From TrEMBL, chains A, B:
Keywords: DNA-binding, Transcription, Transcription regulation
Top-rank taxon, per record: Bacteria
Protein name per UniProt: DNA-binding LacI/PurR family transcriptional regulator
Source species taxonomy: Bacteria, Bacillati, Actinomycetota, Actinomycetes, Micrococcales
Single annotated GO MF: DNA binding
CDD domains, alphabetized: HTH_LacI
Positions of the HTH lacI-type domain: 7-61
Length: 340, 340
């Protein structure tokens, strides 16, 4: 069963008295050969221990050559999220030199995400996974640990011992930087239009805002489903309030652009009457008018770092310690100004 | 070698005198077992014709359960392209109910894309591929045909006999609709800031514009690399021209938003002094101010259609005929108006 002794498709074709193309069709389950011919080919292949090259690699102790990414996001909104696409592109850029492929699958829930990890593990379909949006008491972590499936988490909280390693992005500091910028401009009423409350980064950002109350800053958090429509509606409600904020921070660039438009439709001047900022930056955030102040993260680089960390983790004899991802920096643009 | 007779990891563990976990580690090439133990496990596995379940499926005539998508785009600009991400999300939405995964790999050139198809085919790694950006005399088509790799092309030109089937998107009609809208508003000098000239859709859109010369419309095509910077620079050059256009159409939403900003920076009022439109629509195109007139394609639905077409193609005994994708519709927004 050494690689040198493996039978080839040509061998099987000769033994079964058919063309190599017919063998390929039969072994790959493709139409083009009769049921009898297919049965004969499969029998010959089985008798001679034929293995497709991917299995031969697995038996030789090599890898599937595939990294998995189970995406628990609504498919319809995926395209609008620059963070997600930049991250995937960065992951792929790091995999390409290693001839590794990225396998992604959309999952409707965290339970389906966990089931996907189990299936990938049992079928040897992926060598490791990248995991995003960690939660407090995340049910995925003990499962990944028990499966022994190499994984890298992108998140802000230190990994528990024995759990998959985290590429640290320190959302606490990111949030503090952006809210401190607004406080420094004299804003005393600041709102944060967030995504779903169960994400760790929502909690960390909310905590950073409420931490400013000691400095006399009134913070309000409006959780949404991250959609532009919800962001626009949240801004409308905030502006209708008697004590409306003078600065609003949105979780993503698309939400901020929706908020900007909602302000413009109400003839609220940005930034003279209202400052707007975003936790995610993007190409478009820099192109809209006024351009949007944002925390600029090298999301592409983050994806590449995560992939390289995972490649190291797969090769390592034991779980690796957490690493620190590159820190986002504040990019001040036209959408923020001194409070009136 | 029938599935009922296959040895399991538990069988191998018993025969080798180790734990099932050790067998899993050894067969999957993971650390956690000694070299001797690994060798003994691999020997037992080989003696008893152990096959991982994915190979067992292949021998039984089933599929890899994976669809391939080789992406020949610069990784750094991928995230900004809503078309691409929406398409992938749509593909995945159609694959999910079938428990099929999407495998994507970034390729730096069309030659590497072709090499990827050959590798995927020989390793039985994917059951079929989705192919975008068809070209005239496209070298990928005869290769896919010869490999017998099921494929669906998303494009505007009818497939040649024996070549992979096309999901028709009719860019000729799309281009005519958008240019006719501008002509109907009285524009007589129209520019098209395009992507790379080698794409079929660039040619079809350019031809649609030059076809309007019989109606007294002067058209200009400015090819770019599709980047926002190039789109912005192209608009700057057009406006510096003595006979500058009164309407400019961009290939993508991001290019149009870059052009809009370039106009605003020059204090050119959109749409009263200059109309701007885009061949791609997006969430953000509808949110910027002024919002951008665009051809609205259900790109998500197109991806789902392509995936379903490919699933049918994989199951079919012979190549299927071309299908027609849903037609984009013109969405008139704030960025286009009557020519002055």
């Amino acid at each position: 069963m050494s690689p040198a002794r493996r039978v080839t498709i040509t061998d099987i074709a000769r033994l079964a008295g058919v063309s190599p193309g017919a063998v390929s069709f039969a072994l790959n389950g493709r139409p083009g050969v009769s049921a009898e011919t297919r049965a004969r080919i499969l029998e010959v292949a089985a008798q001679h221990d034929w293995l497709p090259s991917s299995t031969a690699r697995a038996l030789a102790g090599a890898r599937a050559g595939v990294i998995g990414f189970a995406v628990n996001r609504p498919a319809r909104t995926l395209g609008a999220e620059a963070f997600f696409t930049d991250l995937m592109a960065g992951v792929q850029s790091a995999l390409a030199p290693h001839r590794l492929a990225l396998q992604t699958v959309l999952v409707p829930s965290i339970d389906d995400e966990i089931a996907t990890y189990r299936r990938w593990r049992s079928s040897h379909q992926v060598d490791g996974v990248v995991v995003i949006d960690p939660r407090d008491d995340d049910p995925r972590m003990p499962v990944l640990r028990d499966l022994g499936l190499p994984a890298v988490i992108i998140g802000s909280v230190r990994s528990e011992p024995g759990h998959p390693a985290t590429l640290q992005v320190d959302d606490r500091r990111v949030a503090h930087t952006l809210f401190a910028h607004l406080a420094g401009l004299g804003h005393r009423r600041i709102a944060y239009v967030s995504g779903p409350a169960e994400f760790q980064h929502t909690r960390l950002r909310s905590e950073a805002l409420s931490g400013l109350s000691a400095q006399g800053i009134a913070g309000a958090v409006i959780p949404t489903d991250s959609s532009p429509a919800a962001a626009s509606a949240a801004l409308g409600r905030l502006l209708a309030d008697g004590a409306s904020p003078s600065a609003v921070v949105f979780d993503s660039d698309v939400m901020a652009i929706a908020g900007l438009r909602a302000a413009q439709e109400r003839r609220i001047a940005v930034p003279t009457e209202l400052s707007i900022a975003s936790f995610d930056d993007s190409t478009v955030a820099a192109l809209v008018h006024p351009s949007i102040t944002a925390m600029t993260r090298d999301t592409f680089g983050l994806g590449a770092d995560a992939a390289n960390f995972l490649i190291d983790q797969i090769a390592a004899p034991a779980p690796l310690p957490d690493r620190t991802g590159s820190a986002p920096v504040l990019t001040v643009r036209e959408s923020t100004a001194r409070a009136r």
